[in-house]
Design a protein that fits this description.
The complex is a heterodimer of chains A (about 180) and B (about 110). Chain A has about 180 residues and is of the alpha+beta class. Chain A has helices at about 5-20, 30-35, 70-85, 110-125, 130-135, 145-155, 160-170; strands at about 40, 50-55, 60-65, 90-95. Chain A is about 50% helix and about 10% strand. The longest helix of chain A has 18 residues, at about 110-125. Classes of the chains: A alpha+beta (about 180), B mainly alpha (about 110).
Chain lengths: ~180, ~110
């Protein structure tokens, strides 16, 4: 099944306008808090990136600060995605964020929530219209232009890989 | 609808009730705190999560207290801890430490850690 791209994109537009966010970096932590989640940071030497916990009294997003800041941003945005999009589990722990390279039918069902959370995270951290504005002056995007990609990634608080994937999703990179 | 939505809706309702009590229009209250009327309407309907400084301004303009505008606390149902046995001790500790503070609040500060 396809993920709910439209719904996620309009949810993000709503968040950006509600919190009057006009430019990168998007303050994910503030949004998460405004939405009622508490953020808990702890450093642990484990491949656990973070988790989302909720019960009737609280919602907590845990972030493993042992990982690089760009990964922490992505983790927080990913967990916020689960919080706003999925409301089944009391505790959801994420280990790493895999990019799907091939269509693997057998894993699609279980993956769907993860893919939605990943799409949410990428779309929130790198809002479409922010990127459009930033790239408006570029004739074409040279992926081997280290300065452009690195500077943009830094601006958005994401890894260069995450930025490249987002640019591909938005059609800036031809497959 | 989750708890947070309910919370903001109740805060909004309380603001609306207090505003009417004071004989203020949405427009009037909005103006007093530097917002546009549609924002005020969204806040009262709980569609827009109110910012802390806006809340403070509303409290002051309406001559009330934060407590009066907060929803009454409902006692949360006791929660079952999620089963963490399949995770490493580190991860277990991570999750347990993260979700503890709210439980401590509920016990009304009798315990010290």
């Amino acid at each position: 099944m396809a993920i709910r791209r439209r719904k996620i994109e309009s949810l993000i537009e709503e968040l950006l306008s509600t919190y009057q966010i006009e430019q990168a970096p998007v303050p994910v932590e503030q949004i998460a808090k405004a939405k009622g989640a508490r953020i808990f940071y702890q450093s642990l030497e484990d491949n656990v990136s973070g988790f989302l916990y909720r019960d009737s009294a609280q919602a907590v997003i845990g972030v493993n600060t042992h990982h690089a800041p760009v990964r922490q941003n992505f983790t927080m945005a990913h967990e916020l995605g689960h919080f706003l999009l999925h409301d089944q589990e009391q505790l959801h722990i994420d280990h790493e964020f895999r990019v799907r390279l091939r269509d693997d039918v057998s894993s699609q069902g279980t993956d769907e929530a993860e893919r939605e959370a990943n799409f949410f995270a990428a779309s929130l951290l790198i809002p479409k219209r922010f990127l459009e504005k930033d790239l408006a002056s570029e004739q074409f995007v040279d992926m081997f232009d280290d300065y452009l990609v690195t500077d943009l990634a830094r601006k958005y608080g994401v890894s260069t890989q995450a930025l490249a994937i987002r640019m591909q999703t938005l059609g800036y990179i031809q497959e | 609808m989750n708890n947070t939505d309910v919370f903001y809706r109740q805060v909004g309702e309380n603001i609306r009730a207090k505003r009417k009590e004071r004989g203020l229009s949405q427009e009037g209250l909005a103006k007093a705190i530097g917002l546009k009327r549609p924002s005020m309407s969204n806040i009262e309907k709980g569609r827009q999560n109110i910012l802390l400084h806006t809340f403070r301004d509303i409290v002051e303009t309406l001559g009330t207290t934060t407590d009066a505008l907060f929803p009454e606390r409902t006692i949360p149902e006791p929660q079952k801890m999620p089963d963490l046995t399949s995770y490493s001790p580190q991860v277990r500790e991570f999750v347990e430490a993260a979700i503890k503070p709210a439980e401590k609040e509920e016990s009304h500060g009798d315990q010290k850690t």
